[in-house]
Amino acid sequence: MRKLLFTVCLLATAGLASAQQANGNKVQMKELIDEQFRFAEQQYKVLAKNVPAQVMPKTYNLKTNKVETSDTKWWTSGFYPGSLLYIYEYTKDPTTLKEAELRLATLEKEKHYTGNHDLGFMMFCSFGNAYRITKSPKYRPTIDTAAASLITRYRPNAKVIQSWNSSKKWKGPVIIDNLMNLELLAWVTDHGGDAKYKKIAINHANTSMKNHFRPDYSSYHVVDYDMKTGAVVKRGTAQGAFDASAWSRGQGWALYGYTMMYRFTKEKRYLNLAKNIASFILNHPNMPADKVPYWDFDAPGIPNTYRDASAAAVIASALLELGQYTEKKDAQVYIDAAEEMITSLSSDAYRAKAGQNGGFLLMHSTGALPLRSEVDVPLTYADYYYLEALMRYKNWYL
């Protein structure tokens, strides 16, 4: 009897200690998240001063100490207003909202853009968040028009949305990033739009599931199609270390994309694929201890090569959503890993000092190393998905 009582007491004590540790961790994360959003509010006021009207920030040139910008047709144009909106959602700072509205007005014309597949990045990360946060109906027509523009790139014979136009190198390229643009289509259908948008999103997700993944659940970056027949011409990369490598941000896009498609469809195949992709990422022998990936999981020179903070931000945000749909044991693995990534990104190793970095939040992202483009620099989408991860953790786990 005494042994039984002693065992019960031990279990009770262990349970209490575990609960206290969990509560203490929540307090720490709450403080961390608050600190990051307060920092972001001030830092983005610095960034706003460095970005002229009619253009959007892309990165910061460490050699010239100047913010590099793009026109609104560039694929990253929606991330700056999207980040401002996440900051406003947390801080309720009217100056931040005013800046977001000014940038949305500049971006709005791109709802008609059909030059590539990036309408979701451009218009849903911006106007989608604006509609969700402000509830203003004025943003809805822009979202609907953007969805109509995006599906002009749908190729029914191959059942995919063509990412880039044909070139000497690619006949009908579809990149793994394209999964991210499906949210725009599925959302429009689920909010009163035509059913065809979601159907196209599902078709694209199914085709990509079939053709983009290797047996270990890593993803190719580019699959090239014969759009008349749907046959795969070849598989390769544009931004990874080599054709068969696991480009880190690409694995993040895949994880995020299929987790998001499960949200819209409750299709178990998507959930299972997302879990397998998460397992590949989190158990990879080349994942660093701080959970901020090298720019490619198969990059030459590991550990003496570049990291990609943007990949960590995308993966962290995706893992937090995946934790919403999985059993407690698996969910805790995803949440813990995302927490480690967020904590690392919020540390001095990756987060800029106040007033520095051109106004961007994060350092040490890698855009396209093989092209020698945007290597070891801040990137606008790294900030966006970092802020999204912070907001998701706050809303779902605190």
UniProtKB/TrEMBL annotation:
The active site is at 118 (nucleophile), 177 (proton donor). SUPFAM superfamilies: Six-hairpin glycosidases. This is Glucuronyl hydrolase. GO terms for molecular function: chondroitin hydrolase activity. Belongs to the glycosyl hydrolase 88 family. Keywords: Hydrolase, Signal. It comes from Pedobacter hiemivivus. The lineage of its organism: Bacteria, Pseudomonadati, Bacteroidota, Sphingobacteriia, Sphingobacteriales. InterPro entries: 6-hairpin_glycosidase_sf, 6hp_glycosidase-like_sf, Glyco_hydro_88, UG_Glycosaminoglycan_Hydrolase. Substrate binds at residues 118, 177, 237, 249, 253. Residues 1-19 form the signal peptide. It comes from the Bacteria. GO terms for biological process: polysaccharide catabolic process.
